[in-house]
Write a structure and sequence with these properties.
With 347 residues, the chain is an alpha/beta fold. It contains 10 helices and 15 strands. It folds into 2 domains: 181 residues, Rossmann fold, CATH 3.40.50.2300; 135 residues, Response regulator (Rossmann fold, 3-Layer(aba) Sandwich), CATH 3.40.50.2300. Helix 2 packs across helix 10, helix 3 packs parallel to helix 4 and helix 7 crosses helix 8.
């Protein structure tokens, strides 16, 4: 991973060895008849990012089909209340484990705590705040969120090519813990290193990971801030729709540093509308989250590092109840992996 993380505490190791996790609820190691049932809940169903996560879940189901029945089911909109209802249904179905990417981590805390109290293993992804509660066994992060956000800030400056100017931010939601962590880390890094590069407003725009809303935001932003120098986008929709509007208006003075998918942002990177795109492979997070759940269900010890059987997660570091991979991908024209991506990143 980028930056070091501390090893797990001895208390965590002792509890893991006994088939329990940080919250002290027995969750693994007991005799089990039949296959383990593991359900993965994305933020929203039917968008490219989480379609690729489903690819990882399906691959895990194929690889471990003799032991598990693994599937993905998500809400039709980015709504924490809908995720709560899905989790309630899964509790009623007596699943063995839940892997969830929360829209609003703390809104899901009560129902996830309920799941764990009934013996269900719970893994969150993009929900590190939940690691401070009894709601999850572990939170899985693809990388250090601070490192990811700081990289966005560095690439913004690099693309702007100057040490003063203005930028705007956009996230899926102000309640999206990781989106805000990246944005805040970028803003902090810029304030400390390039204090004359300033955000145009205190809070980033929100787009609910919706393309129509993101496009509307892009048009509004360019009208409101005609001298804008850059944009930090923490949702895929934000950056790709801004790139499209810039292309339509033939504006080449706005540097985009953003979260992206190769399949979505690639053409804009190639044409020069996006300067830098960052990502991690959603399939990897889906696979690794399910692998972590299976290890706990089987009563395996979660040590200071853990192999989750997917590239960049094979030596994931354990810091308390947070498991951190080394899975940052950064795409930029003229550099690998972008220039060698042909078929390599199918998402």
């Amino acid at each position: 991973m980028l930056g070091g993380v501390a090893v797990a505490t001895s208390l965590l190791l002792m509890s893991a060895a006994c088939g329990t996790t940080g919250g002290g609820t027995p969750t693994g190691g007991a005799s089990h008849e039949g296959k383990y049932k593991i359900a993965t809940i994305p933020k929203i169903d039917g968008i490219t990012w989480f379609d690729d996560m489903k690819r990882g879940v399906n691959q895990f189901n194929t690889d471990f089909g003799s032991e598990v029945e693994a599937w993905q089911i998500g809400p039709d909109s980015e709504d924490a209340a809908k995720q709560v209802q899905i989790i309630e249904d899964l509790i009623a179905q007596n699943v063995d484990a839940i892997v969830v990417v929360p829209n609003d981590p703390l809104a899901l805390e009560p129902v996830l705590t309920k799941a764990r109290q009934q013996g269900i293993v719970v893994i969150s992804h993009e929900g590190p705040a939940l690691a401070e509660t009894e709601a999850v066994d572990y939170d899985l992060e693809a990388f250090s969120n601070d490192a990811f956000g700081e990289l966005m800030g560095r690439k913004l400056v690099e693309g702007m090519g100057k040490d003063s100017g203005t930028f705007v931010g956009e996230v899926g939601s102000l309640t999206s813990e990781t989106h805000m962590a990246w944005y805040n880390a970028a803003v902090k890094w810029l304030a400390e290193n390039y204090p004359n590069i300033k955000p145009v407003q205190a809070q980033p725009y929100e787009d609910a990971n919706d393309d129509a809303k993101a496009r509307s935001n892009a048009i509004e932003i360019l009208k409101k801030y005609p001298k804008l120098d850059g944009m930090i986008s923490c949702s895929v929709s934000a950056g790709s729709n801004m790139a499209q509007v810039l292309k339509e208006k033939k504006i080449k003075t706005v540097t985009l540093s953003q979260l992206t998918l190769p399949s979505v942002g690639g053409p804009y990177i190639e044409e020069g509308w996006i300067y830098s795109g960052q990502a991690w492979e959603p399939a990897g997070a889906g696979y690794a989250g399910n692998m972590l759940a299976l290890r706990i269900l089987k009563g395996e010890k979660i040590d200071s590092t853990v192999d989750l059987k997917w590239n960049n997660y094979t030596a994931s570091t354990v810091d308390g109840k947070i498991v951190i991979g080394d899975a940052i991908l950064q795409f930029q024209k003229g550099e690998d992996p972008f220039d060698s991506w042909d078929g390599k990143w199918p998402f």
